[in-house]
Design goal:
heterodimer, A: 517 residues, alpha/beta, four-stranded mixed beta sheet, 42% helix, globular, B: 307 residues, mainly alpha, 0% strand
Chain lengths: 517, 307
């Protein structure tokens, strides 16, 4: 009995101590939205703003929850009040929770004005559920800077049933498959990066590295680094990469096929296999989830990557040593496709109380350098300092570990990436190069077409694990294509790949017929 | 009854040395299987990141480094805060969970309670049918307004139908009516009976439920994922979950569509850091079980009525 009493006392006292601790830890820097509104009510001298009601924009971005998000929000409010008499509430969620938070917020009907909703996270499902607003009229009315600063192909992509549902981020319009190399080793052996015109060209280099550099993995492959990147200049999957249904990139008519049987796929599979047998690829390729520690430790000579101009510099900032990039294919025609153009975009949900103001804000992201960079890099002289006209570096006394606003994915913050400052490690002509890069690609005829797989849901669900479990060993070079593929093919056919191909072809033909009218 | 000699009773109840040896050996092996992964996790957490990348896991790291822990304690305020949130929810949640479970289970175990069948079914029904995730979420956020509130981490798990059934079963089996009757004849009120007779007699079930709920509060990250948006209320497990979940997502085929996985992966805490997080997360809970153990052993031998 006494024991129980004592236990009770202990629990109560522990609870008290905990609550005291917690309240002691409470931060006093958080600002209440009410003061923001109170100051917003003061008359401003800007005439265009004065006829706008004060409004709080609720925005969801894919970004890490840094310490100083609140400070950035305050800075942003100062700017927005002047320009569109609005304040903003920034909700940042990172890779681990964004999807989940988005689903819950939409399902429960929260009032949201702006949301990051890329095509690879169920954009089309949300549109089908009518969660997002059609934006055509809003863009025409409040989006002059958007139209002026974005490649017209972009605004053709997020179209569903003839209506525009999202504003893509103006950035790299496609990605090329290619390699990233450790620059130190490239220089050491005088490899000529420009001589690469096809993936097979780097084989002699891998051989040299294997023989002369013990302890270095010539070619790293893992779950996160896939050889599939090498085929992406040639073909596109209509669903996820696990389902081998898609089409070749071409100017002519689009034909849906089994992507495991194309010439290019066979070529990559066989190349991968021969590299694995010759010992160029790491032995634990089947189980290695993430090659990052190896890359950080400088133990890798090459790996595959989806490339854009300046990619190697971006990665250098993260791995801390010099890297060079090279496209795997030279002298081929590049195309942009719907997935390329819709992999980062902002939408306005139906629950927004003031979609017009939300569109004004998106418009600012395309024209206002100050606002765009505040979102991308934080506050000047607190998180970054200018070291040139358009170049920035960490502010004094700040580094990657202690910065209160760092590690964001600038491409996911919407607007025009061409307004972003460049990091110290990046070359000053990055954006010009990006422009040229974008112009080198041709939009495919079927930009704007997205496959709606609702008719073949069960087949898609059956195909994905086959692609994952049996297709991956092929691309990693663990098994031989000629002996293994017939078995994979049998499983794919059993799972109904032909039905998916036919259904998809029908959908494409209908789209093309409709666009010719 | 004459007390038997100790030797005699020993020889009657003891097992042969060979069997003893075999059983002991089996359990020793079993223990090693249980403990080895823990030790490995700890060893990985003090391995140098680079040597780990090259040599893989090992019980004897070729190069030790406490960088992972240094990194964690760098942000000691954050660590302490998430610890505080976790411990607070555990202690307060467990207390209320045990209290409510007892208060609900005791009446429905008494035959003299007229509506006990209705209330048993009322509780049991929730095990079969649930409202679904979204309505549940809306209830907490839109009607109770518990978003970003530490109560949201405690309330959903305070009442658990399964625990109530355990407690009810325990009461029906281990609380003879004669004891309660005796207490009533002696003039005790219902509450008096509950506090002075029932609670002391049910230490085993209290300990069981307390341990269950303590563990579930300690290991919970899901409530945090749903209801907490403000990093200052993140609990320990959720911080860990974030790192693991990011890695899982970024190495999936879904993410390769975004074409930016490499840069994103570089920002995910490395292997040693994840292991260090796990060790720090295990910390106190390891000591909880031995603490409850006493009650299990003692409690199960309690009897009140001479048969």
């Amino acid at each position: 009995m006494l024991k129980i009493k004592r236990l009770g006392c202990n629990i109560v006292s522990a609870a008290l101590v905990c609550s005291a601790l917690l309240s002691g830890c409470g931060s006093s820097t958080s600002t209440k939205p009410t003061d923001a509104n109170a100051t917003a009510n003061k008359s401003s001298d800007n005439s265009t703003v004065s006829n706008l009601e004060p409004y709080e924009i609720n925005a969801y971005f894919l970004a890490p929850q840094c310490k100083d998000v609140k400070l950035v929000q305050e800075e942003l409010n100062k700017l927005l009040k002047k320009k569109i008499n609005a304040t903003i509430k920034l909700n940042y969620y990172w890779w681990d929770s964004y999807q989940n938070k988005q689903q819950m917020a939409v399902a429960s009907g929260d009032k949201i004005d702006i949301m990051f909703s890329p095509s690879w996270w169920g954009f089309n499902d949300y549109v089908a559920k009518q969660a997002w607003l059609p934006l055509d009229e809003l863009v025409a009315k409040h989006g002059k800077d958007i139209i002026a600063n974005i490649n017209p192909a972009y605004l053709k992509a997020p179209i569903v049933n003839g209506k525009l549902y999202a504003i893509p981020t103006a950035k790299d319009m496609f990605g090329t498959g290619g390699f990233i190399f450790n620059k130190e080793l490239v220089d050491k052996y005088n490899f000529d990066i420009d001589s690469i015109s096809k993936p097979e060209d780097i084989e002699p280099w891998l051989k040299i590295i294997k023989e002369k550099e013990p302890g270095i993995i010539p070619f790293l492959s893992s779950l996160g680094d896939q050889q599939q990147y090498l085929a992406q200049d040639w073909q596109v999957n209509v669903g996820t990469v696990d389902v081998p249904v898609g089409y070749q990139k071409t100017d002519g008519d689009v034909k849906i096929m089994n992507l495991m049987e194309t010439d290019i796929a066979k070529r990559i599979y066989k190349l991968s296999r021969s590299w694995y047998q010759k010992g160029y690829i790491n032995k634990d390729v089947a189980t290695l989830q993430d090659g990052t520690p190896l890359k950080k430790a400088k133990k890798v000579f090459a790996w595959t990557e989806q490339l854009k101009p300046g990619k190697a510099d971006e990665l250098k900032a993260q791995f801390g040593y010099d890297l060079v990039q090279a496209n795997a294919w030279k002298g081929i025609q590049y195309f942009t496709t719907t997935p390329d153009l819709t992999n980062s975009q902002l939408v306005i949900p139906r629950t927004s109380d003031n979609p017009e103001r939300a569109m004004m804000f998106i418009n600012l992201l395309f024209s206002d350098k100050e606002i765009k960079n505040l979102l991308s890099w934080g506050i000047e002289n607190k998180h970054y300092k200018k070291i040139g006209e358009n170049q920035i570096d960490f502010a004094d006394g700040v580094n990657a570990d202690n910065s209160g606003y760092y590690g964001l994915a600038q491409w996911s913050m919407g607007g025009s990436q061409f307004l972003d400052y460049l990091w110290a490690s990046e070359s000053a002509d990055k954006w010009q190069k990006m422009e040229e890069f974008n112009n080198s690609a041709k939009p495919m005829k079927i930009v704007g077409w997205t496959y709606d797989s609702s008719n073949v849901k069960s087949e898609m669900a059956a195909l994905a694990p086959i692609g994952q479990n049996q297709g991956r060993p092929l691309s990693q070079g663990l098994v031989d294509y000629d002996t293994q593929y017939p078995k994979v093919k049998a499983s794919l056919e059993k799972a109904g790949i032909q039905k998916v191909i036919d259904d998809c072809q029908k959908s494409i033909d209908a789209f093309i017929a409709a666009s010719k009218k | 009854m004459k007390p038997k000699k100790i030797n005699e009773s020993l020889s009657l109840n003891s097992i042969s040395p060979t069997t003893n040896l075999i059983i002991n050996a089996a359990f020793i092996v079993y223990c090693i299987f249980c403990i080895a992964p823990l030790i490995l996790v700890f060893m990985v957490s003090i391995t140098d990141q680079t040597s780990l990348a090259i040599n893989g896991y090992s019980f004897f790291p070729s190069k030790t480094s406490f960088d992972a822990y240094r990194y964690l304690f760098n942000d000691v305020e954050k660590l302490l805060r998430s610890y505080g949130v976790t411990i607070f929810t555990c202690v307060v949640g467990t207390f209320f969970c045990v209290l409510f479970t007892m208060l609900y289970a005791y009446p429905i175990s008494r035959k003299s309670f007229k509506y006990r069948n209705f209330f048993s079914f009322f509780m049991f029904f929730t095990m079969l049918f649930q409202g679904g995730l979204v309505p549940w979420y809306i209830m907490y956020t839109k009607y109770l307004h518990l978003q970003d509130n530490i109560i949201a981490l405690i309330m959903p798990a305070v009442m658990n139908a399964f625990y109530v059934l355990i407690a009810k079963t325990f009461f029906t089996i281990n609380l003879p009516d004669s004891v309660l009757e005796a207490a009533r004849i002696d003039g005790a009120s219902e509450f008096k009976i509950f506090y002075t007779i029932v609670i002391p007699m049910s230490t085993p079930v209290i300990a069981t439920i307390a341990l269950f709920s303590f563990l579930s509060y300690w290991n919970d990250w899901y409530l945090c994922l749903l209801f907490i948006n403000d990093p200052q209320y993140y609990n320990l497990q959720y911080s860990m979950y974030q790192a693991l979940r990011s890695l899982q997502f970024l190495t999936s085929s879904l993410a390769s569509a975004s074409g930016n996985t490499t840069s994103a992966l570089a920002n995910v805490p490395g292997e040693t850091l994840r292991m260090a997080m796990a060790i720090i997360g295990i910390g106190p809970i390891i000591f909880a079980y031995p603490f409850f153990q006493r009650y299990f052993i003692k409690g199960l031998t309690i009897g009140a009525v001479k048969g």
